[in-house]
Amino acid sequence: MREVPATEFTRNFGQYREIAQREPIAVTSHGRATGYFVSAVEYEELQRLKAFGRRSRAVADMTKEEIEQMAAGRMSPEHDHLDSLLDET
Hints:
Elements: E1 2-5, H1 6-11, H2 13-19, E2 25-29, E3 32-37, H3 40-55, H4 64-72, H5 83-87
Parallel strand pairs: 1-2
Antiparallel strand pairs: 2-3
């Protein structure tokens, strides 16, 4: 990730707007990041991730039926090789 002082960022906003399409930019003040400049695509993805996190729930808040449905769930056989990773502990 590129870091740039706020004064440099302000002077060359157009240049950093283009760079932000490829990578986030940390905008700094007195050597500390005060914000980040990211592309619209990256920002939208972050918003989707935040919304997904809000949909998660603690097991204590789930009904018995929901817990049973989760326990009965099975992975696709194409992921069976991952079970061996659990046995290595």
